[in-house]
From TrEMBL:
<dbReference type="InterPro" id="IPR004839">
    <property type="entry name" value="Aminotransferase_I/II_large"/>
</dbReference>
<feature type="modified residue" description="N6-(pyridoxal phosphate)lysine">
    <location>
        <position position="248"/>
    </location>
</feature>
<dbReference type="GO" id="GO:0030170">
    <property type="term" value="F:pyridoxal phosphate binding"/>
</dbReference>
<dbReference type="InterPro" id="IPR005958">
    <property type="entry name" value="TyrNic_aminoTrfase"/>
</dbReference>
<dbReference type="GO" id="GO:0004838">
    <property type="term" value="F:L-tyrosine-2-oxoglutarate transaminase activity"/>
</dbReference>
<keyword id="KW-0663">Pyridoxal phosphate</keyword>
<dbReference type="InterPro" id="IPR015421">
    <property type="entry name" value="PyrdxlP-dep_Trfase_major"/>
</dbReference>
<dbReference type="InterPro" id="IPR015424">
    <property type="entry name" value="PyrdxlP-dep_Trfase"/>
</dbReference>
<comment type="similarity">
    <text>Belongs to the class-I pyridoxal-phosphate-dependent aminotransferase family.</text>
</comment>
<dbReference type="InterPro" id="IPR015422">
    <property type="entry name" value="PyrdxlP-dep_Trfase_small"/>
</dbReference>
<keyword id="KW-0032">Aminotransferase</keyword>
<dbReference type="Pfam" id="PF00155">
    <property type="entry name" value="Aminotran_1_2"/>
</dbReference>
<dbReference type="GO" id="GO:0006572">
    <property type="term" value="P:L-tyrosine catabolic process"/>
</dbReference>
<keyword id="KW-0808">Transferase</keyword>
<feature type="domain" description="Aminotransferase class I/classII large">
    <location>
        <begin position="39"/>
        <end position="378"/>
    </location>
</feature>
<protein>
    <submittedName>
        <fullName>TYROSINE AMINOTRANSFERASE</fullName>
    </submittedName>
</protein>
Length: 379
């Protein structure tokens, strides 16, 4: 943490680097090079709209336009979200679950990032710790630092398709552990967990008496041997907080429409005090625009399956191309071919590289010399 004084009080600022932070530094390194004339190829941001092959559906566009032009959704929405939006998301998620969610289980957030903030804020207490995957998504570490949650990392095992190291999870957890986080489909590893592995995660969490935070922002974007299985399928074994959004599957990250869902058929999260705590926190949050929320039921109900299949086909084709090209580069390898999401984790062989100290050094020199931006795997 870095310190700074405000009104005489010392304020600590987390040192955690974010994806946007490292991208800004990489872009600055290109801008500082007066001799570069190449167009920048940015492969570091999970924004599908940056690429011309990805577009959202006409249904989504028309639903938003109609909601806006109706002139009925210019006011404030309930802080937990419009009732019809919550109900539609509950029905959408229930389709893949062995039980039915209700609208009361769903809270609308401004993207999945806000859902992450809600989850960690609800669990934070003095002395608490949380188990995060490594490699993982840096926003979790940053949010945990602001909430004074101690972070403990468990490794994802590349030799096992980046499965979670369950023995490490058991060794790391103690009486102050509040949750473990899984990201499925995986970011940044591109893995998709099998039904059996997810069940073992649930059983491990239940044994340790901790809940699971399931980040499923890339839900259904699976194109390998394992189909996408929501962690909520095991909600009867262990309570699950499901985080998701429209961003990736519908190619609309800028619409900032996400959800925080209590996937818990046993009813732990229906405790009146727990519900009241969640609702009160949402009272201080700013959710998505009301007209965007109103468009959600129509988007979820009317999007054609052809749209989803086209997206999966593009992701599979580009993944194959990427991995084939990586094989042609002696100093880079792919420990596990991506099977989902929009990311791939590569391994550098520093012995085959001259004047490169680590992955961070490699990324900055690649940006300066070739105007190609990728992200380092280190935090």
């Amino acid at each position: 943490m870095e310190n700074g004084a405000v009104n005489g009080y010392e304020m600590e600022t987390p040192k955690n680097i974010t994806i946007k932070g490292i991208l800004s530094l990489l872009m600055e390194s290109i801008d500082d090079d007066k001799n570069h004339s190449r167009s920048v190829i940015s492969l570091g941001m999970g924004d599908p709209t940056a690429h011309s092959c990805f577009h959202t559906t006409h249904v989504a566009q028309e639903a938003v336009v109609d909601a806006l032009q109706s002139d009925k959704f210019n006011g404030y929405a309930p802080t937990v979200g419009l009732p019809q939006t919550r109900r539609a998301i509950a029905e959408y998620l229930s389709f893949d679950l062995p039980y039915k969610l209700s609208s009361d289980d769903v809270f609308i957030t401004s993207g999945c990032t806000q859902a992450i903030d809600v989850a960690l804020t609800m669990l934070a207490r003095p002395g608490a710790n949380i188990l995060l995957p490594r490699p993982g998504f840096p926003i979790y570490e940053l949010c945990a630092a602001f909430r004074s949650l101690e972070v403990r990392h468990f490794d994802l095992l590349p030799e096992k398709g980046f499965e979670a190291d369950l023995d490490a999870i058991a060794a790391l957890a103690d009486q102050n552990t509040v949750a473990l986080v899984i990201i499925n489909p995986g970011n940044p590893c591109g893995n998709v967990y099998s039904y059996q592995h997810l069940k073992r995660i649930a059983e491990t969490a239940e044994k340790l008496k901790i809940l699971v935070i399931a980040d499923e922002v890339y839900g259904h974007l699976a194109f390998g041997r394992n189909p996408f299985v929501p962690m909520g399928s095991f909600g009867s074994i262990v309570p699950v907080l499901t985080l998701g959004s429209l961003s990736k599957r519908w190619m609309v990250p800028g619409w900032r429409l996400g959800w925080f869902v209590t996937s818990d058929p046993s009813g732990m999260f229906r405790n009146p005090k727990v519900v009241e705590r969640i609702k009160k926190y949402f009272d201080i949050l700013g959710g998505p625009a009301t007209f965007i929320q109103e468009a959600v039921p129509r988007i979820l109900e009317q999007t054609d399956e052809v749209f989803f299949k086209r997206t999966i086909n593009i992701l599979k084709q580009t993944s194959d191309i990427c991995c084939d090209r990586i094989k042609e580069i002696p100093c880079i390898s792919c420990p596990h071919k991506p099977e989902g999401s929009m990311a791939v984790m590569m391994k550098l062989n520093l012995l085959l590289l001259e004047d490169i100290s680590d992955d961070i050094d490699f990324c900055f020199k690649l940006a300066r010399e070739e105007s190609v931006i990728i992200l380092p795997g280190k935090k």
